[in-house]
Design a protein that fits this description.
The complex is a heterodimer of chains A (348) and B (300).
Chain A (H helix, E strand, L loop, with lengths): L7 H21 L5 H26 L7 H19 L9 H28 L4 H21 L9 E2 L7 H19 L2 H11 L1 H6 L4 H27 L1 E2 L14 H11 L4 H28 L9 H17 L16 H7 L4
Antiparallel strand pairs in A: 1-2
Chain B lengths: L6 H28 L6 H21 L6 H24 L7 H21 L8 E2 L8 E4 L2 E4 H23 L1 H11 L1 H6 L4 H26 L2 E2 L5 H14 L4 H21 L1 H18 L14
Antiparallel strand pairs in B: 1-4, 2-3
Classes of the chains: A mainly alpha (348), B mainly alpha (300).
């Protein structure tokens, strides 16, 4: 067989560069202003976060509700490094961004370590029990942050520099997505999917289920940590409630969970679609709410909570009428490797 | 009499525990029959508090004296109604789909109830003071004391638990509920409508959560639409501690957790907030069937 020059992975790289150039050109010519850029940045982070939760919940079938805990660990690790230890806001020279990238990766590593530590004792649990334990983990993280005065306690970590620039976010988001995409089509990914389909059967055919479940937690937590770290360097603030279950933020754990299940558990493409759509929808709803309030035809002002009401209704409706989510377990063709396609068509 | 553990802690712990116990019963009843962790259960409790809040304020605005019994009925009816509706609208369609989709729907229902309440202009997202409509009185036992609020709280909770035990043990409905948690096919063969039993289970669980809402409002008079999440989670831990599916276990688990938490807060606030989660992890690792549960293959 002839070696193809344009493998899908190379094509993806080219598409990535093209998308980046397009956005930068549009920005330079003023078609996209800073407001749009911020929405794009948040959407990119949401893609990263939703995809990372999808590795644990969708591909490995472990129902985790603790993603906010991992995000908080990554966010606070990076935030403490950049703000309190390296004092980057006072630096004016170039290595600032190099140090920031190091801090983001360290945030991810720290979250991954916590993910492994959480994964090992909770592996025995399944389904709803795992959900409760991971939710409890998320609450514990919040309690610990609240009690740690060094990171600001309940006031939050203030004065974080705005270091998450569009190129950095774009690079991290697409690189992470690329790694996760290759992971789910690797031997590891196959093992993870086998655990999702039938844990006992996969154990019987010799899959080391413990190892792959811990690995899923580690990978998911790593990218969640990166997402959290990038996020707080946009918002310039890390606050314990941002990462708790009650957070109404568009990048809060509840929103991310909604994205995964609306998009389709077990489909990275679904997570991408849902993250983009829900981020844009969230902005549109915010504008809509402002517009309604400015018209004064209601006797009272309506609050930003309506946004989350819409999310909740969407989640319930998708679950009731399309339980598998928008994409189910299907992927965009470009994300499916050539070998996999051949298998699907009977190995022609 | 000082120290970490004393009579005062025990009284406060029993009072907090009675609230957890009432919520935990609802979790355990629903889980026992349809194997669903009803995430929205904490929100039934929250709506019970708000129902009591509006009822008391309405009565006081008419210059009447609120009667605890009437308020209790209003709270319970609200909890029961919301529980019934969420079962009918959301959970029922998913009965024969994978269990996780029902769980995610429950999270959706919980989100909806919280944010819809805080979006409504007359509830709103901010804290509100719960009206203190009784004059507070103290009773002393030795060096410890308790208030009439605590007395009302614990006696209502215990009375409700006794009524529930009676229903479960001696009425046909209770028998059907027990039967449906044991063998659904045999239940259908006996000509009993399972869906009706599930409706009743939600109504009973929701009304107890509503009652717990009133009791919580009386003793912790700051209410907010998100107040149900953490007590809901802790009550679920209480249900797991007692052995999920076991009603007596849920009651005792609630009291144990309440006392443990009050003692934990006496040490410091981190221990107090974290002790429930620590108990959860220890129980799930070393005693996954709980204190009174039957050992099944499902959990491990």
């Amino acid at each position: 067989m002839k070696e193809k020059l344009l493998t899908k992975n190379r094509l993806l790289f080219i598409y990535g560069v093209m998308l980046y150039t397009l956005i930068q050109v549009l920005y330079t010519f003023g078609v996209l202003n800073n407001y749009f850029m911020q929405i794009i940045e948040i959407a990119l982070i949401n893609i990263l976060l939703a995809a990372s939760l999808n590795i644990i919940n969708g591909f490995t079938g472990q129902f985790s509700l603790g993603h906010g805990g991992f995000m908080a660990v990554g966010a606070y690790t990076a935030g403490v490094l950049t703000t309190l230890i390296w004092k980057l806001p006072q630096m004016s020279f170039f290595p600032k961004y190099v140090l920031f990238i190091v801090a983001v990766i360290l945030g991810g590593v720290m979250a991954a370590i916590i993910g492994i530590l959480l994964g090992i004792p909770t592996l025995r649990l399944r389904g709803d029990y795992l959900a409760i334990v991971t939710l409890a983990f998320q609450e514990i993280v919040k309690v610990i942050i609240n009690a740690t005065d060094y990171v600001g306690g309940p006031r939050g970590l203030l004065g974080i520099p705005r270091l998450s620039t569009f190129p950095i976010i774009f690079f991290f988001s697409l690189a992470s997505l690329f790694i996760m995409k290759n992971l789910v089509y690797s031997t590891v990914g196959r093992a993870m999917k086998s655990i999702r389909e039938d844990e006992v059967a996969s154990e019987l055919v010799g899959v080391n289920t413990t190892k792959y479940k811990v690995m899923a937690f580690a990978v998911g937590a790593f990218f969640a940590g990166i997402g959290g770290a990038l996020l707080v360097h946009i918002l310039q603030l890390a606050h314990p409630t941002m990462f708790s279950f009650t957070s109404p933020s568009i990048a809060g754990p509840l929103s991310i969970l909604t994205m995964v299940y609306i998009g389709g558990a077990g489909s990275l493409s679904g997570s991408i679609i849902a993250a983009v759509v829900l981020t844009v929808l969230s902005e549109l709803l915010r504008l809509g709410i402002d517009a309604i309030n400015s018209l004064h035809f209601l006797p009272f002002a309506i609050g930003p909570e309506w946004r989350m009401v819409v999310y909740a209704v969407l989640l319930i409706v998708v679950m009731l009428y399309r339980t598998e989510g928008i994409m189910g377990q299907r992927e965009f063709k470009i994300l499916v490797p050539e070998e996999e396609e051949k298998n699907a068509t009977g190995g022609a | 009499m000082s120290g970490i553990f004393n009579l005062q802690q025990l009284i406060n712990g029993i009072q907090l525990g009675s609230i957890y116990a009432l919520i935990a019963i609802g979790y355990t009843l629903v889980y026992g029959i349809i194997k669903l962790v009803n995430f929205a259960h904490g929100d039934f409790y929250m709506l019970g508090t708000y129902a009591a809040y509006f009822a008391i304020n309405f009565i006081m605005a008419q210059r009447g004296t609120p009667n605890v019994g009437v308020i209790l009925l209003i709270s319970m009816a609200t909890g029961a109604l919301v529980a019934f509706l969420s079962n009918r609208i959301a959970y029922r369609k998913l009965r024969y789909k994978p269990r996780l989709s029902a769980l995610i729907t429950a999270i959706g229902v919980s989100m909806f109830l919280e944010y819809f309440s805080s979006a409504l202009p007359f509830i709103g997202p901010s804290y509100r003071p719960f009206p203190q409509f009784l004059s507070i009185r103290y009773f002393n036992i030795g060096t410890a004391h308790f208030t009439n609020y605590q007395l009302i709280n614990v006696s209502i909770a215990v009375a409700l638990m006794l009524i529930l035990t009676y229903i479960i043990k001696y009425t046909p409905l209770g028998m059907a509920m027990r039967a449906s948690s044991q063998d659904k096919d045999a239940l259908r063969l006996m000509g009993i409508d399972l869906e009706r039993i599930i409706d009743y289970t939600f109504i009973v669980g929701g009304s107890l959560a509503g009652a717990a809402g009133l009791l919580a409002g009386l003793t912790y008079p700051r209410i907010v639409p998100y107040m149900g999440i953490v007590p809901g989670l802790k009550a679920f831990i209480a249900a797991v501690l007692g052995g999920i599916g076991n009603i007596l276990g849920a009651m005792l688990g609630g009291f144990i957790l309440g006392i443990a938490e009050v003692v934990g807060y006496a040490i410091n606030s981190i221990v107090g907030e974290g002790i429930a989660y620590a108990i959860l992890i220890v129980v799930l690792i070393f005693l996954p069937q709980g204190l009174f549960g039957k050992r099944t293959g499902e959990k491990v």
